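INTERNAL AUDIT FORM
Audit reference: QA-55
Scope: verify that the stored structure record matches its stored sequence.
Auditor: D.O.
Record contents follow.
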Amino acid sequence: MNKPMFFFTGIYDTVAQAEADYDAIKALHRNDDIGSYDAAVLSRAADGSVKVTKDEKPVKHGGWVGLAAGAGASVLFPFLLPWTAGAAAGGAGLGAWFGHLAHGMSRHEAKEMAEMLQPKQAALIVIGIDEDVAKIEQATGGSIQHVTKHLDGADFQEAEAEAMRALEQQEQVAASV
């Protein structure tokens, strides 16, 4: 069954506001109002540096927590790729997600989303299944602006399966060493 994906970026005045909407999305999932998703909160310091402050992946495969959001953060801010790959402890799985997200979004679109995040602001990135996008947008009412990109040709289940295969292969290689 095809599960088209969306990529949501919301901008907030504070990290606390972004985390409040992050928690609202977690509650939707906990109440079975939405399916699998991945989310991360990022912040941009006064000097322009960006960091991921919180990420979580509540899906049936807990072994790759944060991979989709890490890939999403890296699509918007390519300089984060080494950090997200290391933090996710699953570089191959992250690569599978990165490929799906990058194919569904042009570099120009990603750059425009990244430029929304100004110094001293926070962002919430959510990657999920298209059928849940309206509930995500409703739950993120604290954002001062947001953009939702439907990723044409990208399939959540396919991306999830590819990431799991990559992680399993990575684990097999590590176990044989």
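Auditor finding: record pair retrieved intact. The two ends are 37 Å apart (CA to CA).
Action required: none
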